[in-house]
Amino acid sequence: xxxxxxxxxxxxxxxxxxxxxxxxxxxxxxxxxxxxxxxxxxxxxxxxxxxxxxxxxxxxxxxxxxxxxxxxxxxxxxxxxxxxxxxxxxxxxxxxxxxxxxxxxxxxxxxxxxxxxxxxxxxxxxxxxxxxxxxxxxxxxxxxxxxxxxxx
Length: 152
Fold this sequence. Notes:
Elements: H1 2-13, H2 24-37, H3 43-56, E1 66-70, H4 73-83, H5 86-89, H6 93-108, E2 115-119, H7 129-142
Parallel strand pairs: 1-2
Helix pairs in contact: 2-3, 2-6
């Protein structure tokens, strides 16, 4: 939580734009929730975490645009297998399903600012340049003050 807070502050205080892969909001609303509901975090520790999180975000500006690259669980499993990282291969499908449900719940109720959900099941933006360009275009079209952002 502290690491995510400090990272957010660095980005916020920078003169440059930034894309952040994982935010403080996800840590609290997705991953801490998962740890608690799986029994890996006590109720008092979880409540302390949430209270601290709620205090910390009062000192943060929300992202200009929150982007959710949504992928179904079967596609997540496929991507994990393709990546071939040993430590990811044993992630249970039930856990991925739970995280996806938490993301859906959180994202459908996200109210801190502008947001964009992109279903990526049919996109291979890592290997297909047209798909990557579609992704960039969708994000760019969702941004305010588009002229401030460099396109590549």
